[in-house]
Amino acid sequence: MDFLEKRFRLTEKKTDVKTELMAGFTTFMTMSYILAVNPQMLSQTGMDKGGVFTASVVASIIAMICMAFLANLPFGLAPGMGLNAFFTFTVVKTLGYTWQFALTAVFLEGIIFLILSLFKVREMIFDAIPINLKKAVSCGIGLFIALVGLVNSGIILKGEGTVLQLGNLLSRESVVFVVGLFIIAWLLAREIKGALMYGILASTILALILGVSKYQGGSPITLPPSLAPVAFQIQFDKIFTFDMFTVVFTFLFVDIFDTVGTLVGVSAKAGMLDEQGKLKEASPALLADAIGTTAGALLGTSTVTTFVESASGVAEGGRSGLTALSTAFFFFLSLFLFPVFGMIPAQATGPALVIVGLFMLSSIKEIDFYDYSEAIPAFITIIAMPFCYSIAEGISFGMISYVLIKLLAGKRKDISILMYILAIVFVLRIIWPLF
After folding, report:
1. Do 267 and 314 belong to one domain?
2. CA separation for the pair 435, 431 (Å, rounded)
């Protein structure tokens, strides 16, 4: 106990070992849904579901150990929602690249973030992007993720004579989704910790009863699935291509907002920000997620990032890296439960995706809708993501429209040099096929 006290400065942070361990368990319960959702989502690219599960767990553990010992902060990390959707539905399914290409982009993103974190450039980039666009990106990804959940569950279908249409709500699959959605909504309304995971488990039990999912038999506790089908699949021959540049850039862009925004929001809730509203341990925290992302890409999973669900552990009193370390311990235990996570169908994870979309949409209230030079680019960013079924296109159109509208409105002072550069890059990305 003395080692833990000295290493994590528990007394200084006004906490104790018992509180930190309970906070770590709470954080695990609120973010463990990713262990069902991430393999489910990435397997749609052709990746081995079991391999992705093991890679996701191991990469998360590595990142949280770094968070514990480098930053001494109570934050959980895992493959991020939104980033895994971009990986699957934009890079692979829409743009037509292989999942190996997408993993290579994630690996490069991780290496770049390692460098940027060491020189504190990530904070500089984050500060250069207009606040309304930052909020809009989060909202747009939220709508996109919710749409993914509805489509994967069969609630929304490709239309016959229409763009989209409602699926059969009386089917067994739809019943599983609807029941799961209302269970999660009920638990959240009652402020029950782990609502998403409980909802997924309840939906899975119903899916087993209705025959939507089947248990393969055998013990629910087994050795972790092999990493061999997904690990070390980096395509080094594709690194220096324009296509790789655009994909890596978008990964960088989304992850910068996701991680820094989460760090600031959760740190504010925990009272960890200084008088200037800055987090003293921001650099090592960002370094931890860069290490997790790099390791995750090598192992075979999408971008690792800090989870906003860490706020649940903070609310339970977690204040030090011991919370992150205990969360990592519970992730380690989950390594041996793949048969349980593996039988969870898309109809059981779909409701969680819809609710995560709700969480991400909450920042829309902070967007300035009274200044149309800010509101229109933000709105374009938000609607382009679900309507184009692409996070990248939403970011691209949002950036371009922001610069153009500000110029036309005579508000050049609102445009940073970096914004000009980003807009030009995105325009080149659109017109490149013409040459």
Report:
1. yes
2. 8
| Domain contains 198 | no
How far is the C-alpha of 116 from the C-alpha of 119, rounded, in Å? 5
Task: Answer yes or no: do 1 and 122 share one domain.
Answer: yes
Joined together, the tokens standing for residue 327 give: 């969360």
pLDDT digits 0-9 by tens, 119-157: 877 666 666 678 788 788 878 888 888 888 898 889 999
Query: Do residues 327 and 275 share a domain?
Result: yes
**Hunting for tokens 């370094």 — which residue is that?**
287
Residues 332 and 375 in one domain: no
CB 10 within 8 Å of CB 20: yes
Domain around 414: 367-434
| Contact criterion met (CB below 8 Å) for 197 and 33 | yes
Distance CA 21, CA 317 (A): 10
Q: How many domains in the chain?
A: 2
Per-residue model confidence as pLDDT tens digits over 207-226? 999 999 887 667 778 899 99
Give per-residue pLDDT as tens, 19-44.
Answer: 899 888 888 887 888 998 899 999 99
Residues 310 and 384 in one domain: no
Tell me which residue of 114, 61, 110 sits closest to 83, measured CA to CA: 110
Q: CB neighbours of 170 closer than 8 A, spacing ≥ 6?
A: none
* Same domain membership, residue 274 and residue 395: no
Residue 21 is inside which H or E element, if any?
helix 17-31
306 by DSSP, 3-state: which? Answer: strand
Which tokens belong to 69? 């010992």
CA 16 to CA 22: how far, in whole Å? Answer: 10
| 110 and 25 co-located in one domain | yes
Token pair 């659109």 in the structure block, residue: 430
- Asked if 259 and 320 sit in the same domain, the reply is yes
